[in-house]
Backbone:
């Protein structure tokens, strides 16, 4: 049977980035999260993110394909009382970062920059 566009109606399953090895290959999550926080922090009023100060990146869980389902990491920012530590949780949906949950608003989803997410999807953060 053909679709309206005259093409075969045989849906193909979506594939994930594999880095050419046939199985999922982790990317540089430290650099990804540094870019995501750096971009998001441009709108911060009180605090200033310390670019390059992400640490203790941990893949908390993975999906059935081996991709990260949740990542947690620490970062440093400057506020009224000097330098402080923050924590961010980054859940993934269908292999891509979906929200950023900062320690001071743990129930508020901050949408990651879609340009950065697209770069991640295209393996720009390959190690």
Residues:
């Amino acid at each position: 049977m053909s679709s309206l566009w005259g093409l075969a109606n045989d849906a193909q399953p979506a594939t994930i980035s594999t880095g050419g090895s046939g199985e999922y290959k982790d990317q540089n999550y430290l650099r990804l999260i540094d870019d995501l926080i750096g971009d998001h922090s441009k709108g911060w009023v009180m605090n200033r993110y310390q670019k390059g100060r992400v640490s203790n990146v941990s893949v908390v869980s993975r999906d059935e394909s081996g991709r990260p389902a949740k990542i947690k990491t620490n970062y440093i920012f400057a506020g009224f009382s000097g330098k402080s530590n923050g924590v961010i949780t980054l859940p993934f949906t269908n292999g891509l970062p979906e929200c950023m949950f900062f320690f001071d608003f743990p129930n508020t989803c901050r949408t990651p920059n879609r340009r950065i997410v697209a770069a991640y999807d295209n393996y720009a953060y390959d190690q």
